[in-house]
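Working notes for the structural subgroup meeting. M.R. asked for a predicted model of this chain before we commit to crystallization trials. I am recording the input and output together here so anyone reviewing the notebook later can reproduce the run.

Input as submitted:
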Amino acid sequence: MRIRTQLPPRGRDYRLDLFRGFANWAIYLDHIPNNAVNWLTQRNYGFSDAADLFVFISGYTASFVYARMMLERGFVVAGSRLIRRAWQIYVAHIILFVMYIAEVGFLAHRYGNPNLENEFNVAGFMANPAETLYQGLILSFKPVNMDVLPLYILLMVIFPPVLWTLLRLPNLTLTASFLLYVAARHFDWNLAAFPTGVWYFNPFCWQFLFVFGGWFALGGSIEARPLIRSRALFWFGCGYLLFAFVMTVSGRFPQIAHLMPAWLYDAFNPNDKTNLAPYRLVHFIVLAFFINRFVPRDWPGLGWPIFRPLIKCGQQSLEVFCVGVFLAVGAHVALVEVSDAIWMQVVVSVVGIALLIAVAYYRSWSKKADKPKAPTPVIRA
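Returned structure, recorded in token form:
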């Protein structure tokens, strides 16, 4: 079957690193409740947030990295590399899972606050560790704030055949993904979670954002360029972002909510994140189109020193994400048990981001150090 996509240019796209680094910082800050600093993140000003950005970039990157490999080396090789990457993410998730539970258990004992175990959804593990550990290994049990990686793992495992069809029938693949999204919302499809409930990130819905990222990487951004650059979309997008801002802020401040009709407020509050509400999806697509329009691949700002820590965190995304989830627990406990003053909120936020940057730079240096050095040429007289 003929290839119908346009592969992205060779070389690293630093826009992906920049925005993935921003997503990791935002996820860390958003995981700290009652933290004034997380007002800097996008979730407070529109329907979508850092999770949408993370999933979209993950799909974009998976296509960016493995599509050329699939064409040059075949489906089996590229598919095995995708599965291997999913395995690496799974191992990271399990290590984080164990460390997370140990951290919560230690802090609950240290401060004599058993409610922390319930707050972070690990009380079941303390009561029935064998069953809960098994459910954690099969990704059914997830403590609070540990929902993104299981979604990422599942999407990467099923991505090899999706990537194969994206390369040959990109628009049809995207349409099929969208129909699955619509059906999942209509029929309430989701995966069961342990001990009760369903996955916080419904994979039947969130897969569309992942596939949309892959489609966007494989020529979708070029195909949609007339729309992206159209004046009509620009003004519609500006209006929609303003509307999303007003509705989101109204959900934060009751004074504003009381000024709106109840039917309008209730349509957008609370924000349906689990099933990726259509208004949330449209909000993110508008942002993606605007970024594509105003931040080209060769944007000079990508070389500015101020963005280097963000880019570095994006390049070492898995390690930074895992450390951020771990640190957010300690930051939250510090605000609850030590002080919730504004200065402490700033301290735990700044120190946490500094540690994420340190992890990113160390991991980057470590990877370079692990590479074998080129042999020194022998100079003969």
